[in-house]
Amino acid sequence: MIEVFRDRFEHRHEYAKDWQKRTGGKVLGYFCTYAPEEIMYAAGILPVRVLGGHEPQALTEPHIFGMFCPFCRDCLAQGLKGSFDYLDGIMLSQSCIHLRQAYASWRIHIPVSFQYYLPFPHGVQNKPAYKYLTSELRTFQKAIEEWTGLKISNDALDNSIEVFNKNRRLLRQIFDLRRAKHPPISGLDAMYLALSSQVVDKAEHNVLLEELLKRLQASAPSGNGNSHIRLMLIGSENDDTTFVKMVEGLGADIVIDEHCTGTRYFWNEVEPQEDRLAAIAARYIDRPPCPAKDWPDRRRIPHILSLAKDYGVQGAVLIQQKFCDPHEFDMPAIAESLKKEGVPSYNLEFDVTVPLGQFKIRMEAFLEMLRGEELF
Amino acid sequence: MPGKAIGHYPTEPLKCWNKAKEIRRQYYEDYRTAHDRGGLRWGGGAWTLDALVWGLGDDCHLLTTEPYSASIAFNKELSAKCLEAAEAKGYARDLCAYVRNYIGGIILDKYAFGGPFPKLDFIFQEQLCCSQAKWYQVVSELEGGVPMYSIDLSVGPYKELNETRLQYLVEQMQDGIEWLQKTTGRKFDDWKMIQAIYNECRCTSTWAEICCLNKNIPAPLDEKTMHSLYSLATLNKPSKVVADYYEELLDEVKDRVARGIAGVGTERCRVITDTQPPWGFLSLYRYLESYGCVSVGSLYVFGLEGNFEVKPDGTWGARTTPQQAGITFNNREEALRYYADWNMSRPQFQHFYGPEYKTEMLLRIAKEWKLDGVILHYNRGCEGLSIGVAENRLGLINAGIPVMTYEGNMADEREFDEDRAHARVDSFMENLGLERLVAAHG
Amino acid sequence: MITVGIDMGAKTTKVAILRDGQVLARGLTPTGFDQQEAAEKALAEALGQAGLQKSDVARIFVTGVGRQQASFANGALTEVAADAKGSLLLNRDLRTVIDVGAEEGRAIKCTAEGKVADFAINEKCAAGAGSFVEAMSRALEVPLEKMGEMSLRSKNAVAMNAQCTVFAESEVVSLVHAKTPKEDIVRALHDAIANRIVSMARRVGVQETVGLIGGVAYNVGFVDALRRCLEVGSVWVPPEPEYVGAIGAAVAAAEAA
């Protein structure tokens, strides 16, 4: 059944165009997962995540200095190529400096009828952030209402929040099943689940997830010991399915992740509050943080360690987009914390495309090392 | 074309140059010996809201990260060791170059001005670019857990500053003051903070006034000289010493203008740069001068600390200080609101929200400072100040301003190719129709 | 009037003799360690070819990285300006000139008068320069001069994933082991370098007619890859592309009346 999710993700542009025809609604592309999608969805908008195309491109050099991460350049390239011509608008929830440039150049050079820069706070650990973000969300809501010509009622927000919460709940329930000795779905499969959620109507996605969950719960994988090494993927934006497939083909199970396009996207729900916008604000402020927002305390690390423990992780692959400063600040601390818990890690830098041959050799060596540790 | 004839302006060294050096020397010495005098040592960046810490007393000494890291970078040998130490510890090579120099220094336990690295008592920082607070998170860990508080400044551009955004800043500052009291055990004195705010406003406004004097032809100061002068503001902008110094400097520069004294006597072509220079290769400016081309400033030198406003005649001038405007602060809240506003209007805070803000400023400077071109440093070492640089380039070109770009790194000399940068200058000068002043042949 | 242009490159020194807009003769010699000596040698060769004496020459201009070393020159100009002038002399319709040398790739936007309107240079990345092709020819054990025609024989576009020369080399080895036809690999390599060059060229804006000069222009495979990546009908290549800089210097010498 995973093929359905894979299909949704791989044909996301066709899906969005078709959705526009079906519903007559607007599609809003967002660049960072701090985007308050619930508000957009409540206005009948389909929020879709802008992702790269994983093909070498020759379009962005005039716009973004090459020392900024490949992901932001890849996103802009897709925009400049016309892959996202169907977008009615774009928005960015302020996070890292790199992605900001993809948004800015897009705004300047690619015509859209709506653009919004939300100054999402970096200081998520400072108490005043809640009130501040709530007020910024109110302004954002007004802008969306003006654009769509629709007033967003509390009911609409409640409904939207429930759709999103349900999606997060279902994903977590399915991901939870991977704690088993024989995970019923592979890391690659799980990736398609998370990725497809970011590009389709979540109400439709929920139906599919429910069906999948039913099937997975019904079948119980049996068998003897699983000789596969249990890995965790930690890092920045990662939708490199080729890489994940390669690693799992080497006798490893990627059982959980803590990265931008994976669990960080859907981990926590909106807790109800009278002020719906305050509730949404709290959800995004309290979510597993992007490193750019994880200071002064390190909240990411306890979360990572608890995931590693929960999922019986034996080794971690730390992936980051090349040149990503926020992640580079975190990597040494993450590696050290994991090491203290007996989980070795391996760093890899990702580009728009990755040298599979090279990475295969390294992963093989890493897995060999992990297997060796099991013997003693 | 303006500036073609070789300039023959008289030049003079600055009379108060040595005083600047002394202030800097004393600053680094005060930091090191703070404990001896019962004072405290603290860490923060050039944009930290340091006037708040002055509320704890004037014996709290800040080691401002960026200029300190630049000092390390200036010393190529020490810098190489620091960079390697940071990289050996797992910090990526493309990480902010200042960070790697600073962290490396802590790992090696070396103070750039001699002796071991004097440990921090607390950290009071801000976050605007992605690195600032993260940097100190690492520093705190490396030093065994230094207490840290950081204020989020990323509320959007100044022209869109509204009440809720201002409130967010002020509330963080209020929390910060409570935190300072709790962490240091000292009682906070609003009056001391207010004096510090007045000084900071005076300091950063006076610096802007000095920068504006460079609108004159010939420019009384050149960028290279200005580096050593503006940096005092990054070290200690709320201090009376620096504010007083800038007033003295302003008088001297006014006098230079009156007498037609130039920063570079052969000035015939005027440019500015946009961000930090490659600190280990300031000779690049001398190379420019070999064409009679002078950099009369930089958005970075002007607006990293300097504060400007648009005057009634539509041109840029120094931002009016509260003292000049007759504004007094009756209580903590008022002072904090003003202080937040003052900081938000800073020129180099704007481009984080869109490249057009910086392009607009560069175009304004090009017009008012009568420039022949702009040099953009594609600075690998600093994401915060090179965000949007490619769009800035397009914006300048579209407006018909000659632009030169060169790639480099302000604090990692391995990433700067002097010969290639010179070649870029050669091509740029060629395009502007200028030949080297000293004949290259025969 | 007879003028001379000398392009003192890192690897080779080229000379061109110009009379009234016509190229009379050329000379080329490896630069070696003594740039002055190489310049004199190449000049002598060209003069001999043209049947001229040094005294017949009105002015000598130099360009290239070694241009500071030519004591006998009357003037100098950067390679960027020389490329523009030389290219426009040979083809008045050029508006974008791409020069790929051993170490550097350049893209120059030219005016109709041969002036430089804008330019971009590939910084610190070997994957956008000639040495990339050389490294790959070694990895594939294909003679450098055969790389171009071999790539034209390819019928399949194979994706090259590695963005870096160092990685590309081992990726090539993997492809060979996977029995990928050599023509396809060679073509992929040319596509990859063309991609990087075009990426840089777009910084100055690509306007037709596009010309390719420099040693790599001899590589028909690269010319084809460039043409496809630029999405233009054709890319103009002069008959002897490595002399364009020297010719440009000679043009500058003639203009300096």
Descriptive overview:
- The complex is a heterotrimer of chains A (376), B (442) and C (257).
- Chain A is α/β, with parallel strands linked by helices and 376 residues long.
- In chain A, 51% of the residues lie in helices and 12% in strands.
- In chain A, the strands form 2 sheets. In chain A, strands 2-1-3-4 form a 4-stranded parallel sheet, sandwiched between helices. A 4-stranded parallel sheet of chain A has the order 6-5-7-8, with helices on both faces.
- In chain A, helix 5 (97-109) links the parallel strand 3 and strand 4 (114-118).
- The longest helix of chain A is centred in the middle third of the chain and has 23 residues, at 154-176.
- Chain B has one domain (17-431).
- In chain B, 49% of the residues lie in helices and 12% in strands.
- Chain B is built from 18 helices and 10 strands.
- Chain B has helices spanning 17-32, 50-53, 65-74, 76-88, 97-108, 131-142, 163-184, 190-212, 223-236, 240-259, 283-289, 299-303, 322-325, 332-344, 355-368, 383-386, 389-398, 418-431, and strands at 40-44, 60-64, 122-127, 148-152, 269-273, 293-298, 308-310, 316-318, 373-379, 403-408.
- The radius of gyration of chain B is 21 Å and the shape is globular.
- The model of chain B has no long low-confidence stretch (mean pLDDT 94).
- In chain C, strand 1 (2-8) and strand 2 (12-19) form a beta hairpin.
- Chain C is an alpha/beta fold and 257 residues long.
- Chain C is globular and about 60 Å long.
- The longest helix of chain C has 20 residues, at 182-201.
- In chain C, the strands form 2 sheets. A 5-stranded mixed sheet of chain C has the order 3-2-1-4-5.
- Chain C is built from 8 helices and 10 strands.
- Chain C has helices spanning 35-50, 79-90, 130-140, 147-152, 165-177, 182-201, 220-230, 244-255, and strands at residues 2-8, 12-19, 22-30, 59-63, 75-76, 96-100, 105-110, 116-121, 210-213, 235-236.
- The B-C interface holds B 378, 390, 397, 407, 415, 417, 419-420, 423-424, 426-427, 430-431, 440-442 and C 65, 68, 70-71, 73-81, 116, 118-119, 121, 123-124, 203.
